[in-house]
Each structure stands twice: as C-alpha cells, then as structure tokens.
Amino acid sequence: MLKVKNVTKYYGDFKAVDNLSFEIKEGEIFGLLGVNGAGKTTTFRMIMGLLDKTEGEITLFGKKIDYSLTDYIGFLTEERSLLTKLTVFEQALFYGHLKGLDDTEIEKRLDEYLEKFKISEYKNKKIKELSKGNCQKVQFIMAILNKPKLLILDEPFSGLDPINVELFKKEILNLKKNGTIIIFSSHRMDHVEYFCDSLLILVKGESVLEGKLSKIKKDYRKKNIKIIGDVLKEELEDIKGVLKVEKNKNEFTVQIEDDLYIDCVFKYVSRCKNIIKFEVEEPTLNEIFIEKVGAKYDE
Hints:
CATH topology of the largest domain: Rossmann fold
Number of domains: 2
CATH class of the largest domain: Alpha Beta
CATH superfamily of the largest domain: P-loop containing nucleotide triphosphate hydrolases
Strand content: 25-35%
Radius of gyration: 23 Å
Mean pLDDT: 93
CATH architecture of the largest domain: 3-Layer(aba) Sandwich
Distance between the termini: 35 Å
Oligomer: single chain
Largest sheet: 6 strands, mixed
Strand order of the largest sheet: 6-7-8-3-9-10
Structural class: alpha/beta
Number of helices: 10
C-alpha cells in the first residue's frame, strides 16, 4: 500500500501542496487530478523521493521511500524524458541498469513489450528517428520495464491514436490485475472514469474533492435527463429545478439542480407526444471537475 499522510510542501514562502493525505492499495488505480500548477508534479516527485516534503509522511509497503524501494517504482512523465541519440535498445539498457536488471533480462522484457506494442522493428532505431506516438510507446515501455509495484502515469495517452490508446489501456489493466499500485493523472476525464476506482482533485495544492468515484457521482445532486420527443426548449427551461437545456439534433439534455426535480420534468414530458426517450444520467466527471475546480478558483 502507498500512504501519503498530511504531506505539505513549501518552496520558500509558497505552499505548493497543503496537508495532502490518501491511500492506494495494491491493484487499485487512483486518479490524481487538477489543472496545471495544482501541485500534481510536486506530489509525484515527493512520492518518488526526488523532492523532500516539508511536513508529513509517505510510505510504500510501510517503509519510507528511499533508494531501497526506487527499483520498484515506474514513472511515465508528461514531458519527454528519452535520450534521443540512443537507440531503443540502448535506452532500455540504460533504464534497466538503473533499476538493477541485467542485460539478458532487459532484452527479454524489451522484446516482449516491443512485440506487444507492435514496434519490434524499431529496436535498433534511434529515439530521434521515431514518431511522437512511437516515442510515447517507448517511454511507456521504459516506465514498466522493471515490472513496478508502484506506477505513476502522467498523461499516458499523449500523442497516441485511438488504436494505440486501446493497446495502452489493455496493458494498464493488466498491470492492475497483477497488483500494481497505479496513480493516474490526465486532463481527459473520460479516461479517468474508465480506469479509476478512487480519485482526488487538487486545486492550488489543496484537496477539494476525494473518494470513491461511484460515491462522488452519487452524491453529486445535479443530474442530466436525455429526452427525445415533441417537447419545447422554452417550456423545459421554465420547469422548477431546471438549470439549463441544450439541444443536439433531435435530443434534449436537461440539467436539473437536484434529483428531487426528476418528477417535475417527467410530469411535463408525460403530457407531450411522441416521446421515445426519457433517460436520467449520472453527471460526468468532467461536469463535477469543472464545478469543483471553478468554485475553488472563485473564492
């Protein structure tokens, strides 16, 4: 288990992370979210021991993270971190040696991953000769070459087309199945919803929302109702509890401020003709993120 307990980080007088706490068990994917500058990268670096925390405690499997544990950690950064003048194989040797692997094991694992990600022909190509998408594949391979027990993924799908996104998704879920602790960070809320069991949203270094994703969505009172039929936008907007109404082609999306108002909308719709859809949806994580982050910035 990874435990982050009451962690605070100052840069001089600036508080980058404010009393942050969370736990992640083996085989869980945890979303650490926030806008740029929210404190995510600082948190990642403290977890990996690259930055000293000002206050608090970070442990992995009950131990303080130091050089005895770094061999069990993998990190895919948002920024490119490959040595572009090296070949893919040379890059793997470099990273593998840092993680305590021998040449035979490095090459064996590299060949397996190159085949899995369909880039075996690039083994002896220099990094600078690869496309952005293939560089991202290589960077991901380097992050998991040591079969980490803790893996931090920061915008892992950057530069990937939909087919390769699916390859990444499959491997991330495979790592989860095998017990890897995964911290997942992305600005794509649909990806966060796909992977994450629990999440935490940072704003200015402070947690503004955390918990199980299912409970967060359940507790968020605003709901969307999808309607297809002979209804009028203006009449929907006049219903008590309706916040806004949007129309896309022949479908209306009605946002209500509380699920108590579902019946009010239903009573109106029941008087209309040719209703072929009335469906209440949970809010998207994107909606929740925008509201929580926006409210904090407005303070």
